[in-house]
Amino acid sequence: MLPGLILGGMYALVAMGLTLQYGVARIMNLSYGEFLVAAALATFFLYTGLGVSPLLGLLIAVPAAYVLNWAIYQLLLVPLVRRAKNRDMLEVDSILATFGMLFVVQGLAHVLVGGQYYSYSYLSIPLSILGSTVALNRLIALLFAALIGLALYFALTRTRAGMAIRAVAVDPVSAGLVAIDVRRASAFAFALGGALVAAAGVLVSVFLTLNASMGVVFTTKALIVVIMGGVGNLLGALLAGLVLGLAETAVARLIDPGLTLAANFALFLIVLLWRPTGLFGGAAR
Amino acid sequence: MLEVRGLSACYGKHRALDGVGLSVARGEIVVILGANGAGKTTLLKAIVGLVPPIRGARVTLDGSDLVGLPSHAIVEAGIALVPEGRGIFAELTVRENLLLGAYAARARLKEASNLQRVLGLFPRLEERFRQVVRTMSGGEQQMVAIGRALMSAPEILLLDEPSLGLSPLLCRELFQVLAGIRGNGIGILLVEQNAKQSLNIADRGLLIETGRIVGQGSAAELKDDPAVRRAYFGAAAPGADGATGSRG
Q: A100: closest CA among A78, A66, A72?
């Protein structure tokens, strides 16, 4: 149960940033996972090279990723937003552009750190809780994922700026009619999504072994969770992430670890057949 | 005062608006009558920046130019649109829709008092305050749409066929509410198919046909104009060809 919850919590955290980028800014970011890997590798070098603890690394990586993603939106994506006649066109254009960005980021990572695997040991103290043995670092990662998710949820549902972000996700034209600057809100959502994926990268780096070309794995997992939960729906991403994590762990434990990916996609298909717009997807997509 | 001069707009090669001019003062209701496809919706969209006007147009509110501004800046200037099909945030609650209406900086200070006024206007919305809008009836959704527009503390309120899909009873209520909004000193530009009821509450009317203003007059004059009666009041209507109205 607990390992499934940890895995699910990570999935949820990874997916929340993508659901903001895709749901609000309508950018289907295929290079999403590369930014996770970049943050994880940066944490590795900060920790092993400079002795900066990963939790302190969060305070560096998250604001840096926010600024970087904001700049990417303004410089690379705003031209696409300008020329797109509607959001569907923007979606297609953004897929092509971010597919290119994937190779740029991955290439840069390869040049800087090479293709080998990296991992480090941080608080890997075994604890036995509720009948299962879990490393302390995983528990800390889960705790931080939960805190970040909760903070984001409250920010989006309880504040004026958060409400504006959700309004853009629901209906960007109407958002303009209530004086929301849709382009600014989109840039903010994209940058916030980038900050979240950096946070996820820092947190998974404490217990996962990673190399520079693993980003795609995270992008696909995040995509599955986002679509399962309903595009742009934070609560949906949270729930879908948890369900996926628990299902994968259960299948690995009870049936065969080789079947996790199959279970993953089976669940994805069932949800989509049952509710084509996702668990929390609206009627108007 | 909202003033529009020489406003034209195109969809591809199709000219949907051709040199439209009109004005709406505070505390006045101006109704635009016209058949489907005459350009009524395009006119409202062009005023709020959702459709780009062709060069040479002038849209001003109290003298300051609005042409070329994005729609969020036009709301900020004091013009609110209740669009065709309402354009409310269906997945959000009544409360969230209304509070988002007050997102404009011009409306934030007065948010609490405007909310009280809107809930006074539509007591039903207070009962349904926490309900998700998608689950509500058409009439209630229209209240949310108008309430949300009023929350932005507009000088001029534009409405695109607000009576569409409402029962006759709700229609009458709606037009009474609009008259009440005018009483608060807000100017209203109303696009309607329901000519009879809208002329009953309007001060002035304009007739639009294939993108041009083809006639205008006071509401009383238009109500008595035989061409208008023939074209819009449901009596045997062989098209709107003769609708010239009385000029003035």
A: A72
Q: How far lies A68's CA from each of A73, A187, A213, B137, in Å?
A: 9, 11, 20, 45
pTM of the predicted structure, to 2 decimals: 0.86
Would you call A127 an interface residue with chain B, using a CB distance cutoff of 8 Å? no
Burial of A43 (0-12, 13-18, 19+ CB in 10 A): buried
- Spatial CB neighbours of B150, under 8 Å, sequence gap ≥ 6: B80, B101, B114, B117, B118, B121, B157, B181, B186
CA nearest B190: which of B212, B160, B217, B211?
B160
CATH 3.40.50.300 domain locations along chain B = 2-78+162-247
- A176–B70: do the CB atoms touch at under 8 Å? yes
- Residue B222 neighbours by CB under 8 Å, 6+ apart: B33, B199, B205, B207, B215, B228, B245, B246
Q: Which two tokens stand for residue B40?
A: 């009524």
Q: Give B96-149 pLDDT, tens digit per residue.
A: 999 999 999 999 999 999 999 999 999 999 999 999 999 999 889 999 999 999
The neighbour count for residue B196, using CB atoms within 10 Å, is 12
Residues of B in contact with A171 (CB under 8 A): 87, 89-90
Q: Name the pLDDT band for B234 (thresholds 50, 70, 90).
A: low
Nearest CA to CA, how far is B22 from chain A (Å)?
A: 22
Measured CA to CA, the distance from residue B110 to residue B102 in angstroms comes to: 8
Task: Compute the nearest-CA separation of B230 from chain A (Å).
Answer: 36
pLDDT digits (tens, 9 = 90+) for A55-70: 888 899 999 999 999 9
A50 and chain B: CB distance < 8 Å anywhere?
no
Say if domain B2-78+162-247 classifies as CATH 3.40.50.300.
yes
Which has the closest alpha carbon to B86: B35, B145, B156? Answer: B145
Rounded CA-CA distance B90/B66 in Å is 29
Positive or negative, the CA dihedral B116, B117, B120, B123 is negative
| Chain A nearest-CA residue for B71 | A176
Among the listed residues A265, A202, A230, the one whose alpha carbon sits nearest the alpha carbon of residue A62: A202
Closest among B155, B56, B162, B64 to B106, alpha carbons compared: B155
Query: What is the rounded distance in angstroms from the CA atom of residue A267 to the CA atom of residue A263?
Result: 6
* Spatial contact of A62 and A35, defined as CB atoms under 8 Å apart: no
A245/A144 Cα distance (integer angstroms): 17
